[in-house]
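Q: Got a minute? One more chain.
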Amino acid sequence: MTTSQTIPDRSVILATEPAIRPHIRTTPVFTTAAADFGLDGAPLTFKLEFMQHSGTFKARGAFANLLMREGTDKGVVAASGGNHGAAVAYAARALGIKAHIYVPSISSPAKIARIRQYGAEIVVGGDTYVDAYAAGHAFATERGLAEVHAYDGFHTLSGQGTVGLEWLEQTPELDTLLVAVGGGGLIGGIAAALAGKVKIVGVEPENAATLARAMAAGAPVDVPVSGIAADSLGARRIGSLCFALSGMMEKPVLLSDDEIISAQRSIWDVLRLVAEPGGAAAMGALLSGKYRPAKDERVGVLLCGANTTAVKFD
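A: Always. Here it is, folded:
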């Protein structure tokens, strides 16, 4: 795809979907009573995007980058807390491309194992995502290789936005989507795909509140990052593309680590599904009472990642 656009819109995402469709899974949705979780209101619909290749939604953006950009056949570089790296490694292996993945030391062993399983070259590039990104950028510049950004790239958002298209095709009756936020590639892509069709509410950790802080400041700003979901929702600032699309989103919900852990535990106890902290965060908005649906509001909850070895959540 050649385009002069800098921010993807619905037409771009509609064009991206058939390009990546042969390489991605249609992930399932199911609906259950809110009362199953001790909540009032209309039934809840879950989309199990953690059943995507490599364990998260990020395979969509990875394939969009590798298939729709020029020069990726020479090899690609990605910096990642783990999930993006696993997705790029998976997509690169599927397409016969060499991948160099830079990870911070905070990455979970489960995520590093995923990257290694897919045959990528792994480099630990410092203690934080920012460190890993700087190291990966230097390597890509030196070797003349394409960089695949985890959340602030045109094709990354274009791929992630296909989650939204697929979801509303499966369950068009939804009024509201709850979506975890890290750097904003997922929620930004969904907003671009579904603007005006459904209410989109971001959910992020209190100690990595990139979207909330940017909305308050009127521009992306650096935030301190820590906590249980830092390896997946721990970007230091919201992506510029997501921020440009933030007018299509509601004010985000902020959760404590304890509220995220509680959501993980409830998803396991009620649904017998294992989600990583970032992957469970969207459900925490409901369980904490920080997002309260209207009486007949149909809410969709995106469970977006399951790259964890944990079944015990304490």
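A: The chain has two domains: 10-56+155-303, 58-153.
Q: Perfect, thanks.
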